[in-house]
Design goal:
- The structure is a single chain.
- By secondary structure, the protein is mainly α.
- The protein has two domains: 2-224, no CATH class; 229-471, no CATH class.
- Helix content is 60%, strand content 1%.
- It has a two-stranded antiparallel sheet with strand order 1-2.
- A hairpin with a 6-residue loop joins β1 and β2 (113-114).
- The longest helix has 38 residues, at 299-336.
- The chain is elongated, with a radius of gyration of 25 Å.
- The protein starts with a helix and ends with a helix.
């Protein structure tokens, strides 16, 4: 952590402080390295803490070098701080963070309630003001509780390091800006809160500094969820797959086929809500932000990014449904051979699936080809034992059947209880009819080869009983 400390130390000094404190790395950086962090990891932290974007610099025009350096310093602190506290994923606050915030919050359990009477500590009162919170408030129902905790920890650490309150305010605003899926009025709300705080706390922020702060806050908010508008569907899929084990602790060490299916349904439900606008603010139109309508970033970028987000969410939903159809096949097989509690990876990892598809394949349209490339990709990032890298059985099925028939199988898989042998057999029969017996037999033979050759996967010995059961299933 020497490099991270040096960079944070330089950023604190650039913002007017004495330098990073002995606890700065523990509070702002170390949590990203926890084993429970799959997406919000050091990779994401470093991406967020990178220097100010070329797009924002181009918007601002020529600036003195020291001003650019100051913006880089804000990026470093905000990027490191913004997801430093993630209590559901981390299992609560770290001991160091808990000790720091204990005077201001009830930290018993998960520490989600502000104390009824708070000490008059400027950084704490400022953080509450910029998040629109009040003493005694229960934070558990608020989507922004992790960002608030992250901002509070950063504000207290910066205050201990002698960083001026006006700089702390800009960092807190930047962290607040990364709360996802807030309304299109949110950046204006943050602008108004900073202006109000400037008066209430006599921060001494000029109009130019407040404008720069809002521009950077908006830019970092959009950077935080940039994968939504990535034209490479694989990048968006990678983030989606990493978020599943991060949010569902039960599957982090591996998932049975039934657990794997349930986890995919969890992600599909989220995307369904995102597309339905049934929940306030949780809408694709609120993924990206502008400082104000028609302002930064430019309307053309905002419209294109939002349109691409819509395309990616729809495509990723189809991708996940294809995985449900193929994972349903594995779940049915696991039940029928008497191994429903075996991890999905132990069935499929290491199989040689290339070239086993027989007969005519479907003519796939452009969108189906994007899904196919995502299914065959080897870029699922940091997913541990949750899933294999890529989805070869799903690729085979989509290539043979096309999306319409895959969605029909998805509906059947979703409706079936794969741990019930009758329903599992019914689904397997349906897959056999759609895929043709020869192709189903080839998939089962490949699964048998995985069980026969421990070197292919993660087993230590040949599973002769599974080989026999799989070879005799069709």
């Amino acid at each position: 952590m020497n490099r991270e400390f040096s960079e944070l130390d330089a950023a604190y000094k650039c913002l007017g402080g004495r330098g990073a404190t002995p606890d700065s790395v523990t509070l702002l950086i170390e949590n990203y390295g926890k084993r429970s962090r799959f997406y919000h990891s050091h990779r994401h932290r470093e991406y967020m803490a990178a220097p100010v974007s070329a797009a924002l610099l181009a918007w601002l025009g020529k600036m003195p070098e020291e001003k650019v350096g100051e913006l880089d310093a804000f990026c470093n602190v905000i990027g490191n701080a913004h997801d430093s506290q993630y209590i559901e994923v981390d299992g609560g606050l770290s001991d160091t963070a808990a000790r720091l915030v204990e005077p201001y919050m009830d930290v018993a359990g998960k520490g989600l309630r502000l104390r009824d009477t708070l000490p008059d500590v400027p950084s704490v009162q400022l953080t509450l003001h910029l998040f629109g919170l009040a003493e005694g408030q229960d934070l558990s129902a608020l989507r922004e509780h992790n960002e608030f905790l992250s901002a509070l920890v950063a504000a207290l650490d910066m205050e201990h390091a002698g960083v001026p309150l006006k700089a702390i305010a800009r960092v807190v605003q930047g962290v607040a800006g990364t709360v996802p899926f807030k309304s299109q009025h949110y950046m204006q709300e943050l602008k108004e809160r900073l202006a109000s705080a400037n008066e209430t706390f006599t921060l001494g922020l000029s109009a130019e500094e407040q404008e720069l702060s809002l521009l950077l806050t908006t830019d970092l908010a959009n950077r935080d969820i940039a994968s939504f508008c990535d034209t490479d569907l694989g990048a968006f899929v990678t983030g989606t797959m990493e978020l599943i084990p991060e949010n569902l602790a039960a599957v982090r060490g591996g998932a049975t086929p039934a657990e794997f299916l349930a986890s995919l349904h969890w992600s599909i439900r989220f995307f369904s809500v995102l597309q339905s606008t049934a929940e306030k603010d949780l809408d694709i139109g609120n993924v990206f932000h502008q400082t104000a309508p028609g302002d930064y970033p430019a309307d053309i970028w905002y419209r294109q990014a939002t349109a691409q987000a819509r395309v990616n969410v729809e495509a990723c939903t189809l991708y996940l449904k294809c995985k449900v159809a193929s994972a349903g096949l594995v779940a049915a097989v696991a039940t029928l051979i008497g191994e429903p509690e075996t991890l999905l990876l132990d069935f499929v990892d290491g199989g040689e699936y290339d070239g086993i598809l027989q007969g005519e394949t479907s003519v796939l349209n452009h969108e189906e080809q994007r899904i196919l490339r995502a299914l065959e990709s080897r870029g699922h990032g940091n997913i541990g034992r949750y899933d294999i890298d890529g989805s070869p059985i799903g690729k085979i099925m989509l290539e043979k059947l096309g999306s319409a028939k895959m969605l029909a199988l998805y509906d059947a898989a979703q409706a079936a209880d794969m741990q019930d042998k009758t329903q599992a057999r019914g689904y397997l029969t349906r897959v056999e009819r759609a895929l043709e017996t020869a192709n189903l037999r080839a998939i089962l033979h490949t699964l048998a080869e995985v069980a026969r050759d421990p070197a292919r996967g993660r087993r230590r010995e040949i599973n002769t009983a599974r080989v026999a059961a799989l070879e005799g299933l069709v």
